[in-house]
Amino acid sequence: MDQARLIADNISKSFGKKEIIHHFSCSLNEGIHVFTGDNGCGKTSLLKMMMGLTLPDSGEIFLFGENTKIFSKHTKEKINFVSASDRTLYYKLTATENLKYIGHIYGIKKKDCDCIIPQLLEMVGIQEEGKYVETFSTGMKKRLMIAKSLINDPEILFYDEVFSGLDADGCQMALNVLERLKKQGKLIILVTHQADLIPENSTIYQLKDGKIYVLDR
After folding, report:
1. How far is CA 171 from CA 94, 99, 110, 149, 167, in A?
2. pLDDT tens for residues 163-177?
3. To 5 degrees, how large is the angle CA 60–CA 34–CA 106?
4. Domain ranges for the chain
5. 109-129 tens-digit pLDDT
């Protein structure tokens, strides 16, 4: 097998005197990997380190063999994410315009965007009516964020509280998307506090007192 898509090598992270990640290592290539734990335990901080948004105090993280300290454009094009907040959306644009803009950032051709975007909106249950995103409910914004995360057909997806703000139908949609991604051989890193929504056949990690444990289902 080729080198794993994501490797964490003995990483640690502290805020002040509190160590939230203590010498954690993993080698992940595909499937759904779920990180759970109490609020403030370090789940989102770990996700941000894996994405290269912040750096560990010690140890290293590699995506596709590249150290997260320095990402190439090629590596950036192979990842995407859903953040816990909706601040990654453009409120004065419609759903379609949001996706077109993100597609442009990723270098996707206009004709390809025109083909992909209707499919993504249908997948997440959004009907384009020309309304600005600022009029969307919390759940509709989260649906759009999921669509946005798929625009570049990424190999690694980072999802921070992807079920938050979704109703029962929305949560089922998100689970269906995750299952589809898993079948496609993607690597999904999922942070959630909602234990009842953890996808089947996923690997579960619990963060507690700086240490990370793999749980049996």
Report:
1. 23, 21, 31, 16, 6
2. 999 999 999 999 999
3. 65
4. 89-152
5. 999 999 999 999 999 999 988
What is the distance, to the nearest Å, from the Cα of residue 114 to the centroid of all Cα atoms in its chain? Answer: 24
Token pair recorded at residue 183: 């079948």
b/e 29-65 (16+ beta carbons within 10 angstroms → b): ebebbbbbbeeebbbbbbbbbbbbeebbeebebbbbe
For 26, other C-beta atoms within 10 Å of its C-beta total 18
Question: Can you tell me the distance from the alpha carbon of 189 to that of 186, in angstroms, rounded to the nearest whole number?
Answer: 10
Q: What are the two backbone dihedrals, phi and then psi, of residue 195, each rounded to the nearest 5 degrees?
A: -60, -25
Other Cβ atoms closer than 10 A to 11: 22
Q: What is the mean pLDDT of the chain?
A: 95
Grouping H, G, I as helix, E, B as strand and the rest as coil, residue 161 is coil
